[in-house]
Amino acid sequence: MNAGLILVQLLNGITLGAIYVLVAVGLTIVFGMLNIINFAHGSLYALGAYFAFMVATVIGESSGSFWAAAVVAPVLTGIFGAIIEITLLRRMYHELHEYQILLTFGVAMVLQEIIILVWGTYGKSIPMPSQLDGVIHLGLFTFPTYRIFLILFTAVTCLGLWLMIEKTKYGSIIRAGTENRNMVSCLGIDINKVFTVIFALGVGMAGLAGALSLPMRGAQSAMGDSIMLLCFVTITIGGLGSFTGAILGGLIVGIVESMMALVWPQGGMISIFAAMALVILVKPTGLMGLK
Amino acid sequence: MKPGGSFLLALLSIVLVISFFAGPSAAQEKVTMAGMATFGGAYVGVDEINRAKDFFLNEMGGKVFNKPIEFIIIDDEGKPAVGARKVRELAESKGARFFDGPASSAVGMAVSQVAKETKSILIGSFGADDFTGSQCHRYAFRWGLSAYGAIQQTIIPLIKKFPAAKRWYTITPDYIFGHSLLNNAKEVFNKYGIEHVGNDMHPIGQTEYSSFFNKAMAAKADVVVFLNFGKDTVNSIKQAGNFGLAKKAKLLAVWTQGTQDLVEIGPEAAEGVYLGCQFWHNVDFPGTRAFVKAWQDKYNVPPSYPEAMHVEQFRMMAMGIEKAKSLNTDAVSKAMEGMKWDGVTGETSIQSFNHETRKNYFLLQGKPKKEMKDPHDMASVVSFGSSLKTQAESACKMQ
């Protein structure tokens, strides 16, 4: 083991963390603003990957097919999420958390089966976009160009999302609605539409993560299960409902997973859960959490 | 009692009596066969076994030994306890005595024990050597080559092809199948003077392999060997392509599903990668050609390894029953020993002392996309052959 290997593993961990950040940020938006724990979030991540595959396949092999997929897939996933919110979740906002969990868990299972029915059990894949294919040489090691892009894109996306929520008029409506929906309604704003947009936005982030992971990992019907588990660990470490916590948690999970591969690969998952347990013991609300 | 009630009671009694005598007779007339697959997860294979079942039943006209076949597909969920329980339930409740084995070695070994206890024929192709080695029994048959055979037919040809490649790195799933492949690989490395510069164990269903590639590159490996299977193989080869690992080292996936994996990996990532496979559709054996043609006529695509495996295993059960002219599993087992036929991978025969099948195992290499004649022409055959342990070498002491 040398310093170069450690640095590359660190970079790799940040890449892994970028995917987890995108998924976790979406889940955090939904929980932080709607107070709903969306167990279907992982399946929607998978759906985003399959939507991206579908769009890329329809367009065919061209240098633009990946980019079109990366734009369209999150939108389609968001629309799908909006439909779920309008038809199902809206009826559950005043119910106990246990019922919300049961509903979203059921949605997750149905979504996974729909994916199998529509696309089959064979995994799907698209080639790397030509502009991002290849590697960057880092001395003794090489690092895929696409993964560097992923890190930078995630950073820009999170910044843009934060700016939208914190600095725009619509963002202030969203924040007000989560604080006091009745008051917002009294001011003549359709709070149902606001909540639909929030849910679609959160789910769209999962779809975006799925689309971006497609050239790297492919799409498989059960891919949502593993990401869901890591996503919950991420938001637990970062703090439920905390945007910056989701970012911090995602990076921690990715880096721990990557660094453990150097010393004890079979212990990757154990280490992640151990990190979560440690955070809970020291700060039960998570590193940046308030509730 | 009213007259109408008496009539109904009499009618019901007649129906019950008829059912009592008809029920057992109806059961005796059927041959219950069962196929095991995992319906989800890394080793998912439900679509393949269903297609294979339909193909087989169509081929057999729905009958074997002049009796209708009742075919049941069970989901072992990739869990030994679940697979074993379901096999036992079928054996005890439906009298099923013919089982087509699971994909997972862990499930297969558990099910093998149940097959022995219930005297059920089990034909499997999972890799664990012990299935027809130390844990062999008269009802267990193997179609696919074991981990030993797969290693012999992939690593040794590459050692001979690239004599200057002395530093080999392995990536291994951390369960019985992976350990079998790894142990066999280490024996070959020792025999041929190969330096085993590193190994990484990973859990089944691992989604991220990039860390292992960095370590392989740091170890200056000449060859990186993937000892995993299914989605694990697909993910690892895809990511190896992303990292440009194929440009730094030769890549070998010892145990793949052929076209199924290649399509998922994609031609760009699969180009130049060496892949071992129990079946390849594009070889010139009469049995292969006939099977591939019939399959393509029905499904418009060439068969993959899992599909070929299931069909061949179903056929083995049927041939055994026909040869024994009996459904008694002791008789069928005896009849299957030494059986020879023109199979889906060429000339095929069953060894009597350990019930392993002598068949071809293929070493393929991914083709560049521009050389593909059709979407499934994704690899060329580098070599093929069969490697089985002799009776003296085998740990099987058949009971």
Structure, explained:
The complex is a heterodimer of chains A (291) and B (399). By secondary structure, chain A is mainly alpha-helical. Chain A has a domain at 21-222. Chain A contains eleven helices and two strands. In chain A, helix 9 packs parallel to helix 11. The termini of chain B are far apart. Residues 22-27 of chain B have low confidence and may be disordered. Chain B has helices spanning 3-29, 46-60, 80-93, 105-118, 147-161, 176-192, 210-218, 231-242, 245-248, 259-265, 267-270, 286-299, 305-324, 329-336; strands at 31-37, 63-64, 67-75, 98-100, 121-124, 140-142, 167-173, 195-202, 223-226, 250-256, 274-277, 340-343, 346-350, 357-358, 361-366, 379-385. Chain B has 14 helices and 16 strands. In chain B, helix 4 links the parallel strand 4 (98-100) and strand 5. Chain B folds into two domains: 26-145 and 284-358, Rossmann fold; 148-279 and 361-385, 3-Layer(aba) Sandwich (Rossmann fold), CATH 3.40.50. In chain B, the strands form three sheets. Chain B has a seven-stranded mixed beta sheet, with helices on both faces. Chain B has a six-stranded mixed beta sheet with strand order 2-3-1-4-5-6, sandwiched between helices. In chain B, strands 12-13-14 form a three-stranded antiparallel beta sheet. By secondary structure, chain B is an alpha/beta fold. In chain B, helix 2 runs parallel beside helix 13 and helix 13 crosses helix 14. Chain A binds chain B through residues 1-2, 4-5, 8-9, 12, 15-16, 112, 120-128, 134-135, 140-144, 146-147, 215-218, 220-223, 226, 257-258, 261-262, 265-266, 268-269, and chain B through 40-41, 44-47, 174, 200-203, 205, 207-208, 210-212, 214-215, 217-218, 231, 234-235, 238-239, 242-244, 248, 260, 263-266, 268-269.
